[in-house]
Amino acid sequence: IFRLMLFLYMIKSLRFEKSDTDRIVFAIITGTIIACVFMFWFQYASAWFRGLSLISIGSENTSAVYLSMISILIISYIATYYRLMQRHLKPLIIISLFITVSALVMTGSRAGFGAFIAALLLIATISYRKNWKLYVALVTIPISLVLVAFLLKLEVVYEFYDEFISGGFLKIRLELWKYALIAGMKYPLFGLGAGNYDAVTADQIYQWAKELNLAGDWGISRKQYWHSHAHNIFLQAFVERGIAGVIFLTSILAAWLIAIVKCYKLYIKTEQSHLYFIWFSNVGAFVTIVLTGFVVTGFHHENGLIVMMLYGVMLSFIRDEKSEGPKYNKS
Questions:
Q1: Do residues 5 and 303 touch, judged by C-beta distance below 8 A?
Q2: According to the per-residue pLDDT averaged within each range, which of 43-57, 184-198, 248-262 is highest?
Q3: Which end of the chain has fewer CB atoms < 10 Å from its terminal CB, N or C?
Q4: 51-67 in b/e burial notation, b at 16+ Cβ within 10 A?
Q5: Cα atoms in the 13 Å half-sphere on the side-chain side of 230
Q6: Which residues have CB under 8 Å from 59's CB, separation 6+?
């Protein structure tokens, strides 16, 4: 947490020009594309395929959170600056988007894929009155992805459909959330300590449930399925950092959302393109983190750094816009 907050403070304290944001986007996209291409080759060469994951990011779900944010970052850059880009760069950024979205689908993460679609539809709805062509494009992308996934019978869509029809949707998650609540209720104020959830065993959960008189009512036994994390960022915070951690996490998300609203209002007022780009990117990251956060613990490590970078750049833009007026042309 200290590292992320320090990174956020450092980023928001800086002053960014258009060339600076271009370099940041180029560095992020380049690193992501290299990682994706390597994993494409790795999965092709491997005799066993479960779901694509980027080695430096983590599991399939955590990688999907990252890829969703990066894909929306690329789309936001295209939506804002495509007409101003040099001719040879236009096909490259389209290919980059195709690679990151393909990698997102290949993770097989329903949470990441669903959050990506939800973020685009939300941004399309908000942008409708300003640019109807962009609205059509943003609506077309998720619809096309879902149709292609159904036609190709991809796991990311069919597994969700099967579980929804069978009534097993979120069944395992509900069990994990129940166990996380028990662990959190044992030490409610400050939790077990950061990183200590992994040390908890199924037997300990059973003993704590008995102490709390919940073992019978909640159906807790010694043989329940156990996992090293809660598959929910709020419950994970509750278990490891208690009520204090939940309040801190919720405060960060609330402050981020308030900044997003301020950024959009400034964009409406000034029509500065850089404000639209960073607003678009932050909305995508915020929706991805919050929606996936209910079923995946993906707000940490590289994902947290990406969030703090986007958030910090947005705060820097808001500060400079209010204090000094527009820095860039409206083009």
A1: no
A2: 248-262
A3: C
A4: bbbbeebbbbbbbbbbb
A5: 25
A6: 53
